[in-house]
Specification:
10-stranded mixed sheet
Length: 1252
């Protein structure tokens, strides 16, 4: 009986694709009997094009319908089927069938009467040599999986027949069966629409088959099925649709008793999966998880779908069980994806060359110097003096001080903790058995840690080992760093150590969620220890955010952890009218002489010219002369940094110079802001934090400037380093010589008598009296064994800024109490001391900065008053001062435990929960979580960056790595830490690209990297003029493959995306380091893969990081590409087919094969002429493949190297290569002379090498 076919063509704003689709329908060798077209409220020329095609029926919908609903509307006006031999051919505006497609589909169903649906092989719109989709199935848990996706069509799947599902484009469906199962589910507009329909057809007792002979070209614009756009918004939408479709099908397919359970689990599963999305560095997918869950729970017509499903079902799920993908195949695919990624990410990828370029040696030498310099602190339990105090008695005491609660400072008050407390809690937890010992360890490792950070930062800017070592040395001997170490300023020390890491993470944050999250954590830590950097870092963040354009999503959230950490403190400070106090230094306020601007210009954070003034005074030298000498010594570094703005590549020095200017401005402003008090003296902000930022920019600009010099850059580098070393020598040796403010010891702050009492009465109080230079007495109440650093609060130290300070009336009462104690007034103070929990009074000597006659006088009068007061008993003269105990009834005065704790109020709990949640999210994003990563913080050539353009990211991204598990999102993708822009393209518009990143496997066709490590890269890539038409690209050539191998390639669309990423990566390398111009050369055809195996030395260049976020738009507006296929050969032994052929597959080659290579020294080499393929006979039953004839090699004379257009004999790389060859030649000649033998003849290319 003659089959009657009704073609249903649905279009929605498809004018771009309709002409080709209509022509393809008209060109069918077996034309459809009727053509019904549907226009879904198109706003372009779609309606006109459809009308001009003279369809049998034209339906114009008044609103935009999804594909399945539009087909149902079309069939509503079509006559009902009269018999079982009437068929529907479903087409969309972007579905262009080949001329014999319908004939092939009908031929397949005619010989298979049980078939109710037959699907064609969907191929790429621009290149029919690539399969875009061919068959679908589901896992045991219901997740959809493509059987074949994005592969080079080499007839490897032409034996496929029965499948669980097919795509909607070009699907041939028996009309009666369509009516029986109810068509497509309206709740599945794109994702899984045809898969769900196919499953219902199967469960209705019919078959669904794939017809390889029928081909339909599809563009994948997201109308008849999930789109294939790589834009971030499209990917997020597609991921949400897939998840919603999976959840919808789960509720439809589930037994009645399990529906409620699945419905209740929708939101909890979204929460769990969101955490895994964070681990996968895909925060953009979190919204989709919840959107899919709520849409399925409340916006999906589950009841109607279940009724339709139940009415058409005639067989059980066991009938389709063999067509579902088993768990071992899922695990094999995941394992293969990881192996592919490892294959591309292994190898010699450490472009930093931390060992070879002297990084290890630099750090070890600095570590040895640091051990010698800080030898006096070795073996100490704690460090005190200056701004240093013991951290806390226990780890629990550290963590109890974060958040908001009772602040046990002075008389005590309730308020928010300084963010610095959280940093101290983390630091002290490293030595949990003795938290204060962490500060000792910090001193011992401070110098090598600073050297390591600076060396890695310099590696981001230059490839020269000498300059990297220079940066490490300059950062280690930075005056603000050594000044902080000398003064015991723990917070500025940590700030100096963290700033380079913050810079590294910040530079990489544009292209990496991990780096962005790490930058947010580091920014919170830096601002916690150096709040004065808030303005400067905010300006830098704003500039970076504005300049990031489409990558703003990764930068906009960097300040969030810092804002959350400072939030409670900011609320308290604003409430009492002191918002400026947020910039106050945390820790112990220490008064120092005012600092002059010239001191800051030298880099010194304190007065006294880094102790050179005192040294000069000992020799009778005027301090002004010392100042001039120090300014001269500091000049070389400043001059080099400023000169970088006028040397080649000056644009790279702009950012460091801006950072230096902001840092210096911060330091100057710090000297003018007195926000805290020490006794009766106002204390200005520590200028060293701003100077550390200033020094960071200064060193960075100097490294860039010196790297621009072709020769002799080592001389100014050594001069600058030696000059700075002279400046800081007295300060740097202060701990070793005993002239610093810090003391290493047990950490005991109070007399042993008090600490012994505190061991049994932890809250025993001690009143500390300290003579002041103005004749006053500083008073402080401490509890227990003495003050600890974690309990210090800027709410207390900045209390004098506010009339309504936290201490308020109690502070005035304490002042009155101290006045009565220091004079013979006869006032009864015992009861008041007991009420305050004060058991002891300690009169300490005047501090060096407060010493003087007035201080001695007030100290003497206070001692006489206490001795003459019968309410006190003199205990004795101790190492820390004179001690008295309050006379009483024998009971020790002490306060009860502080209330409330940081968890004692709902507000305190809320603060901890919010802060913990924010930092947990940041940590989940920052941690690598076992993912494959490459080195990102380095200066590498453009070649390596371009090679990264086709990294694993594109094939392991969301749309290529489907979720095979209902609970845990799978698919791992490496990250990119560097980006670039268009200006680094070659002058002719070309850019080198290393095509063919690893692809996610589909069915039996997988890439070779995982199994054998053998990869054949084919594809010479050129960028034609921007006016070239995208559709004018020629078909891709196919590289030769090994007999019996299955191959997998990238598609033209993917190559476009990869090339755009290549241009972006190439640009970033030029911004971050001098990158050589890279072009691509067409080379002769590749040898057969079997002969290429031994040539392992020619493996593809190591890959740099790829973008870890598939949710961000990575497209660039670049000219169209002209590329051939990238082929990855599969190990035949590891992944052999289940039923091997009786005949071996003959050697396959291509008549237009080309292999892309990156040749930095031979940019202008002309492509060699390729041999013409000839036909070879194939075994019976197999097609013939063209084979390249083997031509005998002809001897040739060595040619003079071609001079590239951009060859510069004075270029840094050229000079270094030429010098290396010259040194090697001299060494060889010397060896020959020592041995007495005749020197071997030297090739002219070696003897007269010009560095090319």
């Amino acid at each position: 009986m003659h089959a009657r076919v009704t073609a249903v063509l649905v279009s929605s704003n498809g004018a771009e694709h309709l002409p080709r689709t209509l022509e393809a329908i008209a060109a069918q060798t077996r034309a459809p009997d009727a053509l019904v077209v549907v226009d879904c409220a198109s706003t372009d020329a779609t309606a006109t094009l459809l009308a001009n095609a003279h369809p049998t029926r034209f339906i114009s919908a008044s609103s935009r319908l999804n594909f399945g609903t539009a087909v149902s509307h079309a069939l509503g006006v079509a006559p009902p089927p009269e018999n079982e031999n009437e068929w529907l051919w479903l087409l969309a505006h972007d579905s262009a069938p080949e001329p014999d497609a319908l004939a092939a589909l009908l031929a397949a169903v005619e010989v298979n009467p049980s078939v109710a649906a037959a699907g064609p092989k969907q191929v790429e719109w621009d290149d029919a040599a690539y399969i875009s989709e061919f068959g679908e199935t589901i896992t045991a848990l219901g997740a959809s999986v493509p059987l074949v996706e994005t592969e080079l069509d080499q007839a490897q799947h032409d034996t496929m027949s029965d499948v669980l599902g097919m795509g909607a484009a070009g699907l041939l469906v028996r009309h009666t069966v369509w009516n029986q199962v109810g068509g497509f589910d309206p709740a599945l507009p794109t994702a899984d629409n045809a898969l769900d329909f196919s499953i219902r057809v199967r469960l209705a007792g019919h078959r669904v088959i794939a017809v390889p002979a029928a081909k339909v070209a599809t563009d994948g614009d997201g109308f008849s099925g999930p789109g294939r756009s790589s834009r971030g918004s499209a990917r997020r939408k597609r991921q949400t649709a897939r998840r919603a479709a999976q959840l919808h099908r789960r509720l439809v397919y589930a037994p009645a008793f399990a529906v409620l359970f699945h419905w209740l689990s929708l939101v909890p599963l979204a929460v769990v999966r969101s955490l895994f999305q964070l681990v996968r560095k895909q925060p953009g997918a979190i919204g989709g998880e919840f959107a899919a869950a709520f849409k399925t729970a409340f916006g999906s017509r589950i009841g109607e779908a279940r009724s339709r499903f139940k009415a058409s079902r005639t067989v059980g799920w066991k009938a389709i069980a063999p067509l579902r993908m088993p768990g071992d195949e899922i695990r094999r695919r995941r394992s293969l994806q990881r192996e592919i990624a490892l294959t591309y990410l292994r190898g010699d990828r450490d472009r930093i060359q931390f060992i070879a370029s002297g990084g290890v040696a630099t750090v070890l030498i600095v570590a040895l110097v640091g051990f010698v310099v800080f030898l006096p602190v070795f073996g100490a339990a704690a460090i005190t003096g200056g701004g240093a105090l013991p951290l806390a008695d226990s780890v629990g005491g550290l963590w109890s001080q974060i958040g908001t609660g009772f602040r046990d400072v002075g008389l005590g008050f309730v308020g928010a903790a300084d963010p610095f407390a959280a940093v101290l809690a983390v630091l002290g937890s490293l030595t949990f058995w003795s938290p204060s010992f962490a500060v000792v360890c910090l001193y011992l490792v401070a110098l090598p840690l600073a050297a390591l950070a600076a060396w890695l930062c310099a590696a981001r800017l230059t490839d020269r080992p000498v300059l990297r070592a220079l940066a490490a040395v300059l950062w280690v001997i930075a005056p603000p760093f050594l000044g902080a170490l000398d003064a015991g300023m723990i917070a500025p020390i940590i700030a100096h150590l963290l700033l380079p890491w913050l810079m590294l993470a910040g530079l990489a944050a544009r292209k990496s969620w991990s780096a962005s999250a790490m930058a947010s954590i580091l920014a919170a830590a830096v601002l916690s220890v150096a709040p004065s950097l808030w303005p400067a870092l905010t300006v830098i963040w704003l500039i970076a955010t504005v300049a990031s354009r489409r990558d703003v999503a990764r930068l906009i959230g960097i300040p969030i952890p810092a804002l959350v950490l400072f939030g409670p403190l900011a609320w308290d400070q604003v409430q009492r009218g002191t918002p400026l106090a947020l910039l106050a230094d945390p820790g112990v306020p220490v008064w120092r002489d005012p600092v002059q601007v010239l001191d800051l210009l030298i880099g010194l954070p304190t007065a006294g010219l880094g102790r050179w003034e005192a040294i000069a005074a000992g020799f009778g030298i005027d301090s002004s002369l010392v100042l001039v000498v120090l300014l001269v010594l500091a000049a070389p570094l400043v001059v080099i940094a400023l000169a970088a703005l006028f040397l080649p590549g000056s644009y790279r020095a702009v950012v460091p110079v801006v950072i230096a200017v902001l840092g210096f401005a911060t330091a100057v402003a710090s000297t003018q802001l007195a926000l805290t008090t020490s006794g009766s003296e106002a204390v200005t902000i520590w200028a060293g934090s701003g100077l550390s930022l200033f020094w960071l920019g200064l060193v960075g600009a100097a490294v860039i400037g010196l790297s621009s010099l072709p020769r002799f850059s080592g001389v100014p580098a050594v001069v600058a380093a030696v000059a700075v070393a002279v400046i800081v020598a007295p300060t740097g040796l202060g701990v070793l010589l005993g002239t610093s403010d810090i003391t290493a010891g047990s950490g005991r702050q109070l007399p042993a008598y008090v600490t012994a009492e505190a061991s049994t009465t932890p809250r025993v109080g001690t009143l500390l009296l300290a003579p002041q230079s103005d004749g006053g007495l500083g008073a402080e109440v401490v509890h227990g064994a003495g003050p600890v650093l974690v309990e210090q609060s800027t709410l207390a130290t900045t209390a004098d800024l506010s009339d309504g300070a936290a201490e308020g009336d109690e502070g005035a009462e304490l002042s009155e109490l101290v006045g009565n104690l220091a004079s013979i007034s006869g006032a009864d103070v015992a009861d008041r001391l007991t009420a305050l929990g004060i058991e002891f009074v300690l009169l300490s000597p005047a501090a060096p900065a407060q010493a003087g006659a007035a201080a001695d006088d007030v100290s003497g009068r206070a001692a006489n008053a206490l001795n003459s007061n019968a309410q006190f008993t003199f205990v004795g003269d101790t190492s820390v001062g004179e001690l008295w105990q309050v006379a009483g009834d024998g009971e020790v005065a002490a306060l009860p435990a502080p209330v409330p704790t940081n968890t004692g109020t709902p507000y305190g709990v809320l603060v901890l929960v919010v802060q913990g949640f924010v930092f947990l999210v940041a940590l989940l994003l920052a941690l690598p979580a076992g993912r494959l990563q490459t080195q990102g913080t380095r200066a590498v050539s453009a070649t390596a960056h371009v090679a990264a353009a086709n990294s694993v990211e594109e094939r392991l991204a969301e749309e290529k790595t489907h979720e095979y598990d209902d609970e845990v999102p799978v698919g791992e993708e490496p990250e990119a830490l560097e980006t670039v822009e268009e200006r680094d393209l070659a002058p002719d518009g070309s850019v080198a690209a290393h095509h063919g990143g690893p692809h996610a496997p589909s069915g039996d066709a997988v890439t070779a990297g995982a199994a054998s490590g053998l990869a054949v890269d084919a594809g010479a890539i050129a960028l034609p003029a921007a006016t070239a038409d995208r559709d004018d690209r020629e078909p891709s050539a196919v590289s030769p493959v090994e007999p019996g191998e299955r191959v997998k390639t990238t598609t033209p669309a993917e190559r476009d995306e990869h090339l755009a990423d290549a241009a972006e990566l190439n640009e970033a390398d030029a911004r971050d380091g001098d990158a050589p111009r890279v072009t691509v050369t067409d080379l002769p055809a590749a040898e057969p893969a079997a002969e290429a195996a031994p040539e392992s030395d020619s493996a593809p260049a190591p890959l740099a990081e790829a973008d870890d976020d598939p949710d961000v738009d990575d497209e660039q507006s670049l000219p169209p590409v002209h590329a051939s296929a990238h082929v990855n050969a599969l190990s035949q032994e590891a992944f052999a087919p289940e039923e091997p052929s009786e005949h071996p597959v003959p050697q396959a080659t291509s008549d237009a094969a080309s292999i892309e290579q990156l040749t930095p020294g031979d940019d202008d080499a002309a492509p060699a002429e390729q041999p013409v393929p000839t036909e070879q006979p194939a075994p019976a039953g197999l097609p013939a493949f063209p084979v390249f004839p083997q031509e005998p090699a002809e001897p040739t004379e060595p040619a003079e190297p071609t001079v590239p257009d951009d060859y510069d004999p004075n270029d840094e790389t050229v000079v270094s290569v030429r010098d290396a060859i010259e040194r090697e030649r001299h060494e060889q000649d010397a060896e020959w002379h020592r041995s007495g033998d005749t020197p071997a003849p030297t090739d002219h290319e070696e003897r007269d090498h010009d560095g090319r």
